[in-house]
Amino acid sequence: MVARSGGKQRSRLAYRMRRLQAKARRLFSVELWGAPSLVHPLFDAPRPRVRRTRAPTPVDPALVSRIADNFRRADADFNTQSPSMWQKIESNNQAFTGALRQGDAPGLQRQFETLFQDELLGGFGHRESLYFGENRWRPGFQELRMTDMLLSLGEALGVLNLPNHVQMNLLDYVDFVHTDQDRLLADIEARLGFSLVMPLVGNPPVFRLNGVSTSADMVRHAYVAFRLRQLGLNPEDPIVEIGGGFGSLALLAHRAGFRNYTIIDLPYVGAIQTFFLGTALGPDAVSGYGEPEKAIRLLPPPAIKDIGNGSVAMVINMDSLPEIGEPEAGAYIREIGRISRLFLSINQEAQAYIPDVGPQLVVPDLVASVDGFRLMHRSRYWMMEGYVEELYRIERSRG
Ligand SMILES: C[S@@+](CC[C@H](N)C(=O)[O-])C[C@H]1O[C@@H](n2cnc3c(N)ncnc32)[C@H](O)[C@@H]1O
């Protein structure tokens, strides 16, 4: 009897020791990640593996020739760009703009085939060098960011409960950070009702989760495509996005069912959007400057003047107006007030100083200089730290 009870005590002690050791190991391996744009403190976080893709990208010569024609028309009409950081970014891409100007089809084909492998997407896409080359970020940052955005999207959609550091102990929080990402992606896609697959156009780096090749851009922009529905927009409602990156939000809005979408952007960026979206969705889904209108229109800045008064349900601007030169940004706000009923802005307000340009702009300051914008909602942006989401209703006098 005595020996057996001693044995029980020993095994209880051994069990407690094992638990303590496990806890200590977990805590010693903790690495706290609080880096730019991350929403979660990432303790001991998983880093989903990013893969290179090398599948040949189909390049439709007819689409490339349309892109060069559209670019030349857009470029001829857009000559009023005010000083901004985007002039410098564009000047880094002269091989591309030169090929567009000359209608150099083989040159354009080569650059489109490897869109995500060179620097053409600098400033607006998760290209390969961010994962495999640039050491501006600590190694692993982009992979941690993917984990952070998956958790953020899960929380924003209500697929995950929001963690709470007052109510949870550290180990429970570490477990939360380790949420099974295959399962999470499946639950997110089920809640969204559309896919987060990244089209393999231009060899993008991808994460393989639950059998789906997805990307950071798909996860981040899915939130806004979902938000359009949540805010009551209907499939045929006209939507205008100012500054659309390579077209990832437009693609996801299309998957979410929206069929009347215009991007206003720099002519060379419009050329990239036309290629990406025209390859992912088919050339008949897109139209450029001077072409008959299709479901997604990729237009240069002056084209905003052709949009009718009050004819747009919502203008979206994400991570872009603060970076545009002041006279142009002010003109955009006036045009938004003229054409749209709602304005959704997701932007930062840090006013970083840009050499030879000045401080970046702040959207509420721009809006304050124009009549008729009524702020309905202002909150932190779910998907990235340091960004604010604002919804304005535009009230215009009748008659
Ligand atoms: C930082 S990127 C953001 C892209 C995208 N909205 C996103 O969140 O990923 C800024 C965008 O603003 C666009 N942009 C820059 N100057 C512009 C201008 N004058 N008019 C319209 N878009 C402009 C860029 O081409 C790019 O698409």
Explain this structure to me?
There is one protein chain. The chain is built from 14 helices and 13 strands. It is globular and about 90 Å long. The protein is 42% helix and 14% strand. The chain has an eight-stranded mixed β-sheet, sandwiched between helices. Strands 1-2-3 form a three-stranded antiparallel β-sheet. Bound molecules: S-adenosylmethionine. The site of S-adenosylmethionine has 19 residues, from loops.
Helical/strand content category:
alpha/beta
Number of helices: 14
Total number of strands: 13
Evaluate the radius of gyration.
24 Å
Please bin the fraction of helical residues: 40-55%
Largest sheet: 8 strands, mixed
User: What spatial order of strands do you see in the largest sheet?
Assistant: 6-7-5-4-8-9-13-12
What small molecules does the structure contain? S-adenosylmethionine
Q: What is the first-to-last residue Cα distance?
A: 97 Å
Runs with pLDDT <50, length 5+? none
- Indicate the overall shape: globular
Order of helices and strands: HEHHHHHHHHEEHEHEHEEEHEEEHEE
| Portion in strands | 5-15%
Q: What is the arithmetic mean of pLDDT?
A: 93
